[in-house]
Write a structure and sequence with these properties.
By secondary structure, this protein is an alpha+beta fold. The chain has helices at 6-12, 25-28, 30-41, 166-171, 194-201, 257-260, 312-341, 356-368; strands at 46-50, 59-65, 68-74, 80-84, 98-100, 103-105, 112-114, 119-121, 142-146, 149-153, 180-190, 233-239, 262-268, 272-276, 281-290, 293-303. It is built from eight helices and 16 strands.
Length: 374
Amino acid sequence: MADINPEARQRVTQPLATAWTLPPSAYTSPSIYQDETRAFLNDNWHAVARIEQISERGDYLSLDLLGQPIMVVHGQDDEIRVMSRVCLHRAAPVVEGTGNRFVFTCPYHAWSYDTAGNLKRAPMMEDADDFDETGPRLPQASVEIWNGFVMANFAEHPTALAPQLSTFTDYFAAFRLENMEIAKTIDYEHNWNWKVVVENFMEAYHHIGPHNQSLEPAYHARDSKVPDNDGPWSILHMPAAEPHHDGPLPPIESLPDWQRDALFANVIFPMFIFAVNANSMFWYQVLPKGPDEIDLKIHVCLPKAYRELPGYDEVVEGTAAIADMVHQEDIVANDQVWAGLTAPLTQQGRLSPYEKSIWQLNQWWISQLGLSAR
């Protein structure tokens, strides 16, 4: 298991007022990344799509999740499935990209599968002894739909997600996240550990640095707060410096004032991160490719009903441009952090009381790796 010495663990698990960060090896060590993969990355719930991306029978999208090529499919029976897209014959991917089809045919030897993952055709296999063309099926994940997100878990007997998020779900009920849809997606590739982007996302303390001309004037770092959690999640509540819901899009009508005039950054552990404000949601889909590499998709999401508003397309482009501007500021900061984490003299640092979300994630991380009592 993870090679973190007892003193470092003890520092991490201190109460927030005296707590320290994870040691640099937690981010940079390939062996610790392997421990994470075995302990909780592979067998956990991951947001793989929004339901509107696969709204019709036969709709599919493909991606790589922790090294596993998968596809999200709206079946002919209206079931939403997440499954391997690796052919059961000689392991070529049966599909790439997105589209609509009812049969997935491997380009290598033309083995074909239906939208439930069942093998339907295996050419020239009639002379193979004891081969049942109707038996094989692509490996399947467990699936839950949570507020419009397609959540997948490849564990054999996963713990249901929704009960773990009861308090979290109630907290954001007024936002009606299930009514959101992806309006635009921006793609990035970064050479960071996945925790670097999650930690940066979950604290407003750095508004005074990289975002001193963008986010800090609107959401003061000193006003940010993090409620206690009772599950695998954390919420960063950033009240607005002034009410500012008079922009090109109206606020969601169901929101109370305290949510209408705030920005919320959220994480469902380990890496499902999204932010919501009065009229939009930003889903940061983090897809690790190793201990020091991620693909990142920032999905700009708006309420479906807003499509009918005048100037909608311009608003989408403007909102995406703001999201990219903020992320460009974060890229500079995260590149600096990564350079420091990989330097030989770098050690643990003290956490600020304004980094409670990071502290909450660290406690979960320690417990998942079985390090708490060691």
